[in-house]
Write a structure and sequence with these properties.
The chain is an alpha+beta fold. The chain folds into five domains: 97 residues, Beta-Lactamase (2-Layer Sandwich), CATH 3.30.450; 94 residues, Beta-Lactamase; 100 residues, Beta-Lactamase (2-Layer Sandwich); 77 residues, Signal transduction histidine kinase, dimerisation/phosphotransfer (DHp) domain (Helix Hairpins, Orthogonal Bundle); 152 residues, 2-Layer Sandwich (Heat Shock Protein 90), CATH 3.30.565. The protein has 16 helices and 23 strands. Strands 2-1-5-4-3 form a five-stranded antiparallel sheet, sandwiched between helices. A five-stranded antiparallel sheet has the order 11-10-14-13-12. It has a five-stranded mixed sheet with strand order 16-18-19-23-22. Helix 13 packs parallel to helix 16 and helix 15 packs antiparallel against helix 16. The two termini are 76 Å apart.
């Protein structure tokens, strides 16, 4: 602005921008009272106070100082506000050419907040500033209206001003603490810090009485302590003298009692001096004498009581050991305990029953020999079982559960067992293992019955679907013949009725196909043609087919596909079925905007991620978990009408999980939904 002539077209715009900037700066920095910008003639051209615009300040000392360079005016009383403030003036140069100055008028409240913080200064301490002329320029704790009025010509100020012009002398950098009268005439303890940039002195002072009060208290405490020490020393002397004479008296008295025949009397003390050692020796002598005179009957009684206690302990151990064995033997779990060399330490009766063997046949033998040789006829595939179990033993880790098929010796009775093996990490057999076998024969029977029931369900569904398809096809063709006029003319009401019937027949036909697909997927009979395919090509093909449907509804249908995806193995027909279902659902519940299909690689780089996102009505949070379950009722709200999930999304879930992937939904009511599924880049198998 200062480089632009006043009558140039852009001058007004620049002036407005400058006024806006300086007003914003004033709002942000509360310590700024006023900002003025003067041109090279000393005329105020911009100001936070519009009343000053146009003033001629060419003879103002601030303008003259500002032309020469950066100038900071000491604290003074403002003519405008009547409060203390500071001025900072700086020249404005462009390529070395003087264009004007900027003058910032600063409030001193923030500075005074620092000096008024009297934390740690007690009841009489204060910190304040004095300028080079020895006048206070910050508030006083004791007097009012002192700024630039109260002169401080104390010893503290004189010592501080000695630093002026001598900041480079190291000896003067040491902080001085002295006692002197302050500006009130009261003796204080104080120190100072010289601020060379402003030629100010920062003074900190506290009344001498308050400062030295702890020393007087310390003197009193010291006197009390010294007096107490003398008293305690006198008492200790009395106590020590008695401590020395009392054991001698007790020893003499004890010797008389023992001499009278009381061998149980003790005179020994814990003292480590000669008297203490003599008293303990006296006790040992009387104890030895007592043992020698103890009767044979009492000695025999003690021996008998000790033997009785030992017998009771053995009986208790046998009882509890028997109880533990009974619990382990009566449990329905077969147990093998092996030591660190895989030798059998213990088996319970349940395991004997499971494997049709005797405990005496296996205790102390290598478990691997028992599996591979002794019980070879028990397992249908003993080598495979042994390889599965013992290949993991070297790791000393837990072995996950797996099932084994066991036959009795006569091969007439069979059972299924579930096997687990855990390391023993403490106790007698540390480094060994404990193996558990649970009978799951009944569970296997139930699973087999369930599989048979599923097979019957699948056969029944296929039969019913076939029986329904034939008449439905005939009905559909008959309606088509009537609608195209081949069977004669029909009126509009009849045509509407037949059109509705045709749509219901089509819907029933689709439902039958969905039921057949779901039954196959649920029973595990659906076949997946796993081939290498380009997921982006499948997406483009389905989107191209569905654009006509979306366009007819006034919606857009677009893609955002990642070019970094390589071909992966999946069933293209079934994934196309999933995409078609998801896009059709999106079109159904979207009235504005459209649908975007996105592809990419997940963050771990292990799967391809496909997302179908719409701008439709959205789904309630509590309904998200039920979307992929067949025939679930979904409640209504202001965005969505009541309805059910049908089989479409349930089939999608079965297909994606059949590929080893995951499908889920995210939604926010009124802002659309996202259906996301993943396909592994390297599927198992």
């Amino acid at each position: 602005m200062l480089s632009t002539g006043r009558y140039e077209p852009e001058y007004t715009q620049k002036l407005e921008r400058v006024n806006s900037e300086i007003n914003n700066v004033k709002k942000i920095h509360k310590e700024i009272f006023e900002i003025n910008i003067l041109n090279n003639n000393g005329i105020v051209v911009a100001s936070t106070d519009k009343a000053y615009v146009g003033y001629n300040r060419s003879n103002d000392a601030l303008f003259l100082k500002g032309k020469e360079g950066l100038y900071i005016r000491d604290i003074h009383i403002s003519k405008t506000s009547g409060n203390p403030d500071m001025d900072i003036v700086s020249p404005v140069l462009l390529n070395g050419e003087f264009l004007g100055v900027i003058n910032i008028d600063l409030k001193t409240e923030e500075l005074f907040k620092i000096t008024l913080d009297r934390t740690g200064l007690g009841e009489t301490g204060e910190a304040y500033l004095v300028n080079k002329d020895k006048y206070m320029i910050s508030p006083s704790r004791f007097n009012e209206d002192v700024i630039l009025k109260q002169k401080v010509d104390t010893e503290n100020v004189k010592r501080c001003l000695l630093h002026k012009g001598k900041e480079h002398i190291p000896e003067l950098e040491e902080k001085e603490i002295a006692v002197f009268p302050d500006y009130r005439g009261i003796t204080v303890l104080g120190t100072h810090q010289y601020i060379p940039q402003m030629q100010w002195c920062l003074l900190a002072e506290i009344d001498e009485k308050e400062a030295l009060a702890p020393l007087a208290k310390l003197k009193l405490i010291f006197s009390i302590v010294m007096f107490s020490v003398l008293i305690i020393a006198w008492l200790i002397g009395i106590f020590v003298s008695r401590l020395i004479t009392k054991p001698i008296h007790n020893l003499h008295k004890g010797s008389e009692i023992i001499g009278s025949g009381n061998l149980d009397y003790k005179v020994g003390t814990e003292a480590k001096d000669e008297i203490g050692r003599l008293s303990r020796a006296f006790d040992r002598m009387t104890e030895s004498l007592k043992h020698k005179t103890t009767s044979i009957d009492r000695l025999n009684k003690e021996i008998a009581e000790r033997k009785k206690a030992e017998a009771a302990l053995r009986e208790s151990e046998a009882k509890y050991s028997s109880m533990i064995n009974d619990v382990l033997n009566s449990s329905g779990v077969g147990i093998f305990i092996l030591d660190s060399e895989f030798k059998v330490v213990w088996v319970n009766r349940t395991l004997e029953t499971f494997f049709d063997l005797q405990r005496s046949e296996v205790i102390g033998k290598d478990k691997r020999e028992i599996i591979c040789e002794r019980i070879r006829y028990v397992f249908e595939e003993p080598e495979k079982f042994a390889e599965t179990v013992f290949s993991t033993y070297d790791d000393n880790t837990y072995i996950e559960r797996f099932e084994c098929h066991v036959l009795a010796k006569d091969k007439c009775k069979e059972r299924w067992l579930e096997h687990t093996s855990n390391p023993i990490k403490s106790g007698f057999y540390t480094g060994g293992r404990i193996e558990l076998y649970v009978d799951i024969t009944e569970r296997k029977k139930v699973e087999e019955e369930l599989r048979e029931a599923m097979s019957i369900k699948s056969q029944f569904t296929s039969m019913v679907s076939h029986e329904l398809r034939t008449p439905l096809t005939a009905i559909k063709e008959g309606i088509a013949i009537v609608l195209d006029g081949s069977a004669g003319k029909i009126n509009e009401d009849q045509k509407d009725f037949l059109s509705t019937a045709k749509r219901n027949v089509d819907r029933l036909h689709r439902l039958i196909n969905d039921v057949l697909d779901f039954t196959k997927l649920e029973s595990g009979k659906a076949e997946f043609r796993m081939e290498e395919n380009d997921i982006n090509e499948i997406i483009e093909e389905i989107v191209k087919t569905q654009k006509a449907v979306a366009g007819g509804s006034g919606l857009y249908l677009k893609t955002n596909l990642s070019p970094d995806i390589e071909k992966i193995r999946f069933d293209s027909d079934k994934i196309a079925q999933v995409l078609t279902n998801l896009i059709n659902n999106a079109i159904k519940f979207t009235t504005r905007g459209g649908i975007t299909v996105t592809s990419g690689i997940d963050v771990e780089g292990k799967a391809v991620r496909v997302q179908v996102e719409d701008t439709g009505t959205g789904i309630k949070k509590e309904n998200l978990s039920r979307l992929f379950v067949e025939f679930q009722q979904v409640g209504s709200d202001k965005y969505r009408k009541p309805g059910g999930t049908g089989l479409g999304l349930a089939i999608c879930r079965q297909i994606i999980e059949g590929h080893g992937g995951i499908i889920r939904a995210e939604s926010e009511q009124g802002r659309g939904s996202k259906f996301i599924f993943t396909l592994p880049i390297k599927p198992e198998g």
